[in-house]
Amino acid sequence: MKQTVYTASPESQQIHVWRLNPEGTLTLVQVVDVPGQVQPMVVSPDKRFLYVGVRPEFRVLAYRISPEDGALTFTAEAPLPGSPTHISTDHSGRFLFSGSYNAGCVSVTRLDDGLPGETVEVVEGLEGCHSANISPDNRTLWVPALKQDRICLFTLGNDGKLTAQEPGEVTTVEGAGPRHIAFHPNEQYAYCVNELNSSVDVWQLSNPHGQIECVQTLDMMPAGFMDTRWAADIHITPDGRHLYACDRTASVITVFSVSEDGSVLAVEGHQPTETQPRGFNVDHSGKFLIAAGQKSHHIALYEIQGVQGLLEEKGRYAVGEGPMWVVVNAY
């Protein structure tokens, strides 16, 4: 298995392309100058394209991925209705979702043979919309509205249209600020990191009554932390054993262990990392984690170790200015 790491640096308008080597090092393959402030990124399900959200002209750019070394070639673009805060796709690669914090909306863009085209849906009224996350069964789109302390739930139609489910939302505690979501590989649980109180909620996707419910909430901050809480990102290992979330004020990555069925988290430790970690990701082997420091202008590579999933730094690398997004492609 070959793996490529892509890091987005909006202040210098660059994407850095890295080869992730099996021994835990990174080799720079390419630096791409992007026509705009590049922020969220996602790889297409078939691994052929990297989709990139840019501003101030709100667009999604499609770059073709070389199967040899992961290098990027610009291929197509399409407009977006708001500044892209987060982008993702459905599992079939037919639709691209864009959540816009400033515009308070989520949009659906049709993908034709992997290339972005027309906008087929826009749902507004989602104040502080911070991400769009398709469920493992490709049926339900989870859309956190941070300023409203709710996660809206939409059914994705075959035409890309979104229909509010019944009930159409779940709510967090007041002031939590739901932001990003990760799903357990067993498809029974979702984990949401809350930006404003730096907690993680465990959501059971369907209880015996067919309802979604919160079954656990954990504080992710070190004991005695008294500063402003400012959580950002969350990811789970492919085997579902370890979950990670980051806080930008403390510049730490919190390490969680996950129970075998996915229902219970336990904090195992806190890893100091690059200054203001806005984004990070886990590789497809579950052996490595790559974190971006928005204020350090570096990325750090960690090896995931032991039954606790603690992190050992293997190296750090200079990237562009203000790195804030990390994605990993395996092929």
Key terms:
single chain, about 325 residues, mainly beta, four-stranded antiparallel sheet, about 0% helix
Describe this protein's structure:
The protein is mostly beta strands and 331 residues long. Helices cover 0% and strands 58% of the residues. It is built from no helices and 28 strands. The chain has strands at 3-9, 14-21, 25-33, 37-43, 49-55, 59-65, 72-79, 86-89, 95-100, 105-112, 115-123, 133-134, 140-145, 150-156, 162-171, 178-183, 189-194, 199-204, 213-219, 231-236, 242-247, 252-258, 265-272, 277-282, 288-293, 298-305, 310-318, 325-330. The strands form 7 sheets. A 4-stranded antiparallel sheet has the order 3-2-1-28, with no helix packed on it. A 4-stranded antiparallel sheet has the order 4-5-6-7, with no helix packed on it. The protein has a 4-stranded antiparallel sheet with strand order 8-9-10-11, with no helix packed on it. Strand 1 (3-9) and strand 2 (14-21) form a beta hairpin. The mean pLDDT is 97.
